[in-house]
Amino acid sequence: MKIKNHLLYHDNNDRVEWQETPNKSGHLKEQKPRYIIMHYTGGSNVQSAINTFKNRQAQASAHLIIGNDGRIVQMGRFHERCWHAGRSEWQGIKGLNSYSVGIELVNWGWLNGGQGNWRSWAGTRVPDENVVQLKHKHDATQRGWESFSETQIEVTLNVVRALLHQYDLTPDCILGHDDISPGRKQDPGPAFPFDRFRGLLEGRRETEQPDILNPIIFEPKFRVTASSGLNMRSGPSIADTVIKTLPSNSQVILLEKLDHWWLVSEIINNKAETTGWVYSHWLFPIN
Ligand SMILES: [Zn+2]
């Protein structure tokens, strides 16, 4: 992806879908962003986020919305001042709307209920396989959070890469709304893989020493989040035989994807062990 005139373009030079928000005022103080603030919408789809940000009464907006399916919508130019941060402060700078680009990821955020009956704040059912149970850094209680889709994370990574490149920024400028408005905001929350994200942007994997005997450093690593363990199967369906149940928190590397079923190898003592298929929603990326 690339940016021209503060507008985002796909690699084929098509402009990203443009849906201008009326909820913006003037330009960023430095005429370009210094920070990138990550949010979640607290909703279920791109359209409802567009509707909110086009509604003047909402008095809220963001530069970008990214859907679970990777759809990207731009609502303000990157040097314009959108209203996504509200009361906020970071390293002595107050009012981050004047210094940042806001990216809203479609996601419900934290959920009510429990296994078999996870619900959004709006009462919508969220299937177990889309839920990760984690603690927020500002909260001692473990909760269920809707996971971000792999496509959504990959697309977001490409967008952020383009922003860093265009505006000469480093990965430490990527912040959560919960970093700049702690206590008041929980988004993007613990389900957003910040460490992996920053790691990939810093090019850690590229600079690592190649080691042919140890392929695991080349492959994306994941942690099993299912508290009762995750069945590893001989094929990509629940009809296939269970080879082994991977314990909660065990680590795997990703070898191949077939929709929501992933072929993974369990990692024990830094070595790839048993290989088989697992349902991907119970895996959480680690750096
Ligand atoms: Zn937010």
What is the structure about, briefly put?
By secondary structure, the chain is of the alpha+beta class. 15% of the residues lie in helices and 36% in strands.
Heterogens: zinc ion
- Tally of helical runs: 5
CA-to-CA gap between the ends? 24 Å
Number of domains: 2
Quick one: CATH superfamily of the largest domain? Peptidoglycan recognition protein-like
Proportion of strand residues:
35-45%
Gyration radius (Cα, Å) is: 20 Å
Largest sheet: 6 strands, mixed
Strand order of the largest sheet: 3-7-6-11-5-17
Q: State the shape.
A: globular
Break the fold down into its secondary structure elements and pairings.
Layout: E1 2-4, E2 7-9, E3 17-18, E4 24-27, E5 35-40, H1 46-54, E6 64-66, E7 72-74, E8 80-82, E9 89-90, E10 93-94, E11 100-105, E12 110-114, E13 117-119, E14 125-126, E15 131-135, E16 142-146, H2 150-167, E17 174-176, H3 177-180, H4 194-201, H5 204-207, E18 221-224, E19 230-233, E20 242-246, E21 251-258, E22 261-268, E23 271-279, E24 283-286
Parallel strand pairs: 3-7, 5-11, 5-17, 6-11
Antiparallel strand pairs: 1-2, 4-8, 6-7, 9-10, 12-13, 12-16, 13-14, 15-16, 18-21, 18-24, 19-20, 21-22, 22-23
The structure holds zinc ion.
Zinc ion (ZN) binds at residues 39, 177, 185, 187.
Summarize this structure as a short list of keywords or feature phrases.
single chain; 287 residues; alpha+beta; Lysozyme-like; SH3 type barrels; 2 domains; five-stranded antiparallel sheet; 15% helix; binds zinc ion
